[in-house]
Amino acid sequence: MVAGLKGGEGAILVIGASDTGKTTFCRWLVAEISRAGRKVTWVDGDIGQSTIGPPTTVGMAIFGKGSPNPFGEVKPLFMRFVGSTSPVGHLLQTLVAAKKMVDRSFHLGARMAVVDTTGLVSGGIGRELKFQKVDLIGPRYILALERANELEEILAPFLNRSQISVHRLPVSSKVRPKSVAERQRNRESRFNGYFQDGRIRELSFKDMVLHGVVRELSRKRVVYDLLIGLCDHLNDTLALGIIEDIDL
User: Fold this and answer.
1) Is 71 inside any structural domain?
2) What is the pLDDT of residue 142?
3) Which of these three, 147, 170, 193, is where a domain ends?
4) Using 50, 70 and 90 to split pLDDT, how confident is the model at 21?
5) To the nearest whole number, what is the mean pLDDT of the chain?
6) Is the N or the C terminus of the chain less surrounded, counting Cβ atoms within 10 Å?
7) Residue 23: which pLDDT band, with cuts at 50, 70 and 90?
8) What domain count does the chain have?
9) Final residue of a structural domain among 170, 192, 209
10) Is the residue at 38 inside a domain?
11) How far does the chain reach from its first CA to its final CA, in angstroms?
12) Do 157 and 44 belong to one domain?
């Protein structure tokens, strides 16, 4: 299967519940494809346990011959701010961010894009999120990491589509489940690392277009200590910030 992937084109969507080894598998797959001399991107859509960029963002990095090893620290070439560490309540932002990063991948000349996803696969929200993500991105391959048949309801609509190749992969026995506390500590560590060199900046409202909760400036308590994304004219995120004070 891997030889076929290395010779193909299009997006590769990696899905699975939490603690199935999706991120490690994505690292390995990106390394294998780039080692074969093909230009490939890694789109990190796991907004709660981010590897490329800080949590709350969908990050993207590009690899090829001579690129840094994806098993080291990976810095985002582009990223999109979703605004939460969970897709629940932010389904639209999560889907748009992933789609934009995949489109950007192919615009940059990548032949393949490996897309990591969150572990939200159960319940109506999990199934709908994955269905719409497949429908929107249109992957060439779906690689499903599963222990039993927990992904069957997600995979069923795509099994007979000739344009999508579905592959089920067993979860490695080496995968170690993480506790809720471990996941929280990992997010805190990622945020602390991101903001460790942060500085106070004073920005004028007249130089910005505001979107989202931050627009409710008359209710100061709503935006105090709020995590925000600072974006360019294409809505690509240049940096994250934390609002410390507002002078109305």
Assistant:
1) yes
2) 97
3) 170
4) very high
5) 90
6) C
7) very high
8) 2
9) 170
10) yes
11) 59
12) yes
Beta bridge partners of 242: 227
Q: How far is CA 97 from CA 184, 235, 237, in A?
A: 23, 10, 10
Long-range interactions of 168-175: CB distance < 8 A, separation 24+: 168/144, 169/25, 169/143, 169/144, 169/145, 170/145, 170/146, 171/16, 171/20, 171/21, 171/145, 171/146, 171/147, 172/21, 174/21, 175/19, 175/20, 175/21, 175/24
**164 and 220 fall within a common domain:** no
Residue 18 pLDDT more than 90? yes
Judged against a pLDDT cut of 90, whether residue 24 lies above it is answered with yes
> pLDDT band at 218, cuts 50/70/90?
low
Nearest to 77 by CA among 95, 51, 59: 59
Q: Which residue has the tokens 């945020």?
A: 191
25 with 129, same domain: the answer is yes
Closest C-alpha to 88, from 128, 131, 60, 50:
128
User: Can you give the residue range of the structural domain that contains 227?
Assistant: 201-248
pLDDT-derived band at 205 (thresholds 50, 70, 90) equals: confident
